[in-house]
# Entry
Amino acid sequence: MQSTPDKDLKVWKDATLLTMADGYGRIENGAIATLQDKIVWLGPARDLPMAYAEAEVISCGGNFLSPGLIDCHTHLVYGGSRVAEFKQRLGGMSYANIAQAGGGILSTVRATRDADEYELFSAAQKRLTQLQRSGVTTIEIKSGYGLDLDNELKILRVARKIGQNPAVDVVTSFLGAHTVPPEFQGDAQAYMDYITHDMLPAVVRENLADAVDVFCETIGFNTDQVEQLFARAHELGLPVKIHAEQLSNSGGAKLAADYQALSADHLEYLDETAIKHMAAAGTVAVLLPGAFYALRETQLPPIALLRKYNVPMAVASDSNPGSAPVLSLSLMISMASTLFRLTPEEALAGVTRVAAQALGLRDRGVLEVGKKADFALWDIHHPAELAYQIGGNLCVGIIKDGKAISL
Ligand code: NIG
Ligand code: FE
# Structure
């Protein structure tokens, strides 16, 4: 009797693999065998074991194949747009001044509170499709434009609903401490008390957040308030992360490392002491070149020092309506190289292996046996083209959980 081939066993051939396990981990004429949503074998095609002879064979058309990209920092769910503010900034007004005048994050809070779940979902889904086309198969989504219990829960529910889409995995972060809402104007401490006593426990009860985030800044929260939030997050069993040292050195990244933060993000004004604490804690530095670009920042994050202390560097879109209206993660590979001088290899690791680490995910980000079968296909001849080319879309295919996705 003839054995029937296992329907879920597939071999992906005719690809140059970038495993990203160690550097690019390049394998010429590679093949990957997947069973359902997992990698079961990979290597040069000529070494493919006979055991896979019956598998369905899929040609990757001679393209490069990398792990699916992971966008480890986004604010994808929001109402409205900040195009008017964009024009003000072009006219010379600063991001911080606009925020202090009640615009900025608070203007998106007003629009987000006015939107229902369906409106938020469809607007976010459109942005997500764009990011997916740039190779994204896993995305982190923060709340932070509700700033009261009902509206923060609304945003997180929308983020979870987006995660039901089989073509993408969603990880959520509760960013109730994004800024002080109008109800608590001038009293950041009272708002932080409300977050730690009421909002965060409710978010945890509904299992809507995978981590807790905060904006530590003169226009956000001070380190005492951040510490209050982190202590409560730990009591409730959630890991923490932080927006820190974006516009000034406020000491947030060092404090976050002392709470074993998964990541500290932005970091333009980061100092060496904080870097040592991040290295000791294994806290990932998440670099956000889109925000740096859009705000026309000039202070570069301390890349050489991060390298010196072996702090892993991730790269993310920060997709949000204000500081980073970014719709392409592969464009961030280019910006991380050109603006921050990451090597093309570091930049690609930043949206794959290191981005997975920033989210505490051990099952993806590299091509290895046992990892998820999430891949992106690239029409390139050298991996550095991903950093070299600007705009356009070099991503010609996406495989999620072992299935080709059409967008
Ligand atoms: O990551 N820095 C604070 N939060 C966002 C910006 C949010 C906004 O401007 O709407 C950021 O840059
Ligand atoms: Fe952000």
Notes: The pocket of fe (iii) ion (ligand 2) is lined by residues 73, 75, 243, 318, 320 (CB under 6 Å). The two ends are 40 Å apart (CA to CA). The CA atoms of residues 204 and 237 lie 9 Å apart.
